[in-house]
Structures are given as C-alpha cells and as structure tokens.
Amino acid sequence: MSGLVSIIVPVYRAESYIAETIAMVVRQTYKEWELLLIDDHSPDNGDEVIRDLLKTYECRKIPVKQKGILSAEEYTDGTGRRIVLVSKEKNEGAATARNIGLDMAQGRYIAFLDADDVWFPRKLDCELRFMEDKQAGFVFTAYEFGDENAHTTGKKVHVPESLTYRKALSRTVIFTTTVMFDRKIIPDKLMRMPSVESEDTATWWQILRAGYTAYGLNETLAIYRRPPKSLSSNKFTAIKRIWNLYRRQEKLSVLSSARYFILWAYRATVRRL
C-alpha cells in the first residue's frame, strides 16, 4: 500500500521530547510521510529545538491565512519529505492544534502522534498494510504503557478486532497515538476534534456514530508514556471526563450513561492490572 501519510503532532511543553519524536518519525520503515508540528504557543523552547534540529534542511515560509496562526515554516530534506512547524498565537489545546494540522495536511492518510509518546519503527508500515487488508478507513493498534522515560512497564493493552459505536461507548481502548485514517473513506469533518475534555475519545465516537467501524490491529506498535502525575493517571478526573462525554457530548440518558459507565470502569480497571 502506498500514499502520503500526514502525521500531526501538537507541541506543548515538549522541549524534552520533540527531538526524539522527530527522529522516531524519520526512522519509520515507511518513508512516504509528512510531519506537521503544531506549536500550541508553548512557554518552553520546543520551537527552537525543532529549528536547531532542522537547520540543515531547506526552509521556506508558508503563507497562511488561518486565524490564530503566527507563522508556518516548511522544512524539506534531500528526499523531498517535508516537516512543517506551525506557530500559534495562543494556547488552545490539543484539539485545536490537531484540527489545524488536519487543515494543512496534504496526505491521503492521517496519523496522530503525541510528542511524548513512542512509535516503533514499523508502525506506519504495519498499519497501512492492515488498513489495506481490512479495506478500512479507521484503524488503531495495541500499545504498552511506559514510564516518564518511555521504559516499558510490562503492561500491554490488547485491542479488539473491531469496534462499532455501541461497543466503543463501553471502552476507551483506542489510543490517539495509534490511530490512522483514510481520507478517501472518512471525511475530514468527522475527524475534526471538538474542544471538550477527552477530545480524542469524543472524536472516535462521532466517527463511529456516523456508521463507520474501527478495526484493531492487535500488535504492539506504540508506547504510551505515562508519568505518575499525568492527567490520565488522575482517576477522579478520568471518571468525570467520561461521564461528561456520555451526558453532554453523546446526550445519553442517565440510565444509559450509567450502564456504559459501569462497563467502562470495569474494562479500564482490568486494562491497568
């Protein structure tokens, strides 16, 4: 399977990770990609780390008219692959950053990657082959947990063969850094993330609610870096976010929300054991 993959990375407080993130993409065995780095008005020096890392690349300014963007720079290496650095005027969160990346993406395929997470070198290759085998527009993979240094903890998350909307409501097994979409099948408007907490889960649900199926490749191709004090490790916050998604985003009844919530809580607990 061939075709350009647009990799979208929100960059916020990622100074310690971003060089590794770029190197990780460059090491992918699948070489037909572009990398879109969206600096979400980060207070650290992540943008300067990126510029310094890419100083040997050819650079040009990209004219942009989108509201909220200060500048966009395109870096190209000797192979013609491009890395784009977008600088935003203010911090608006990962959802807005990813939507900007989606608007600027030139590829047929969309892949999301968080700056502090890890892809294995064959991630794109394996996922594209799987997508072709399934004739799918939405795929995701298994992953494992890592500590703040991305050292694996031994905890792996296996994924089901497929997920429909109803099945997905009771499990948050789709990890953002593992997903891939085919824009010829999934329209961009469904991939646009709402500005809500757990915007990624809300996005998967809105795609599945539209009648699409997500297919799971049960092969570990990513590491979810999870420091002890990360937002996702705050159990009360996670509970509040998932409940709000049921009630406000999906507009489910209290009874339906409670039923899905109980199933979600059980599976979330088992996944972390």
Describe, in plain words, how this protein is organized in 3D.
The model has no long low-confidence stretch (mean pLDDT 93). By secondary structure, the chain is of the alpha/beta class. The protein is built from nine helices and twelve strands. Helix 8 packs antiparallel against helix 9 (254-271). The longest helix has 18 residues, at 254-271. Strands 1, 2, 3, 4, 5, 6, 7, 8, 9, 10, 11 and 12 form a twelve-stranded mixed beta sheet that branches. 40% of the residues are buried. The protein has helices at 18-26, 46-53, 94-104, 123-134, 165-168, 188-191, 199-209, 235-249, 254-271, and strands at 5-11, 33-39, 58-61, 69-76, 82-88, 109-112, 118-119, 138-146, 152-157, 162-163, 180-182, 214-225.
Radius of gyration: 18 Å
Shape, please?
globular
Quick check: average pLDDT?
93
Report the β-strand fraction as a percent range: 25-35%
* H and E order: EHEHEEEHEEHEEEHEHHEHH
The counted number of beta strands is 12
- Secondary-structure-based class equals alpha/beta
Question: What does the largest sheet look like?
Answer: 12 strands, mixed
Number of helices: 9
Brief overview, please?
By secondary structure, this protein is an alpha/beta fold. The protein has 9 helices and 12 strands. Helix 8 (235-249) packs antiparallel against helix 9 (254-271).
